[in-house]
Design brief:
alpha/beta; 2-enoyl-CoA Hydratase, Chain A, domain 1; 2 domains; binds coenzyme A
Length: 260
């Protein structure tokens, strides 16, 4: 796997760190970046040694300042629709990862950068991070899922304000509206993200994957979501880790999960 725009490593604790690595362009999401993101997420998903994933940006200024605007020039309606569908598919791949994905937002998360953070399961922001969907200033709307994920995360009223004004909001405001799970100092950002992902990675892996799947079904009508929940609950009952978790609790010991 040749990567020209991302860094990828797996630390000794099995946490994959994916770093957007175009700091001079504020980690703008060119089509090549999006394609590499798909490759690394599929790789992290299929690597049994990986227990969780942190996605962050290189440099001190940006997580990602959006899609690469230089690639927009001359785009017609058909190109634009294809562009959006492609990005949506990759971001859905990220969202459907069966291992916890935490965005460590180290600066600007604008446009596609904000959409990318929202495709992750959890978001930790550094105090200097800024969030926004400025596409209307370019005569556009978000195309990588922003009009769908933002209302689901923060409610339609606040989402519409974001989407229509294009204003940037602080990490603190993002925390208050539920867009991010935690705020950390820039120096502590990766450590806080790692603590979060490591806590989740210590739980039963199949149960973690099923929570992620079940909560995706929260977008369905409630009765369909309930059916999905019951099915997934039943599937958990068929795992070794379910037996281990219950036995460990009853015998007052720490569980040892195997992911089976
Ligand atoms: N696409 C392509 N290049 C981008 C970019 C993007 N989305 N965002 C920043 N860059 C590039 C700039 O062109 C500049 O390149 P240069 O040094 O070759 O001129 C470099 O990154 C630094 O950006 P600059 O604008 O000089 O930094 P700043 O600190 O003055 O402003 C931002 C930072 C994030 C406010 C500003 O870059 C910006 O508004 N970016 C676009 C955000 C946006 O609209 N995103 C949604 C796209 S759909």
């Amino acid at each position: 796997m040749e990567l020209n725009n991302l860094l990828y490593s797996v630390d000794p604790d099995g946490i994959a760190i994916i770093t957007l690595n175009r700091p001079e362009q504020l980690n703008a999401l060119s089509m090549a970046v999006v394609s590499e993101l798909e490759q690394v997420f599929l790789r992290a998903q299929s690597d049994d040694t990986v227990r969780g994933i942190i996605l962050t940006g290189a440099g001190e200024k940006a997580f990602a300042a959006g899609a690469d605007i230089s690639e927009f020039k001359g785009m017609n309606a058909g190109d634009g629709e294809q562009f959006a569908r492609n990005g949506q598919a990759v971001f859905s791949t990220i969202e459907q990862t069966a291992k916890p994905v935490v965005a460590a937002v180290n600066g600007y998360a604008l446009g596609g950068g904000c959409e990318l953070a929202m495709a992750c399961h959890l978001r930790v922001a550094s105090e200097n991070a800024k969030f926004g969907q400025p596409e209307v200033s370019l005569g556009l709307i978000p195309g990588y899922g922003g009009t769908q994920r933002l209302p689901r995360l923060v409610g339609r009223g606040i989402a519409i304000e974001f989407l229509l004004t294009g204003n940037q909001v602080s990490a603190q405001r993002a925390y208050e509206i539920g867009l991010v799970n935690a705020v950390a100092s820039p120096d502590a950002l990766l450590a806080v993200a790692k603590e979060l992902v490591t806590t989740i990675a210590s739980k039963a892996p199949i149960a973690v994957a099923k929570v992620l799947e079940a909560t995706r079904a929260a977008n369905l009508p409630q009765d369909e979501g309930m059916t999905c929940e019951a099915t997934l609950f039943g599937q958990c009952c068929a795992t070794d880790d379910f037996g281990e978790g219950v036995d460990a609790f009853l015998n007052r010991r720490k569980p040892s999960f195997t992911g089976r």
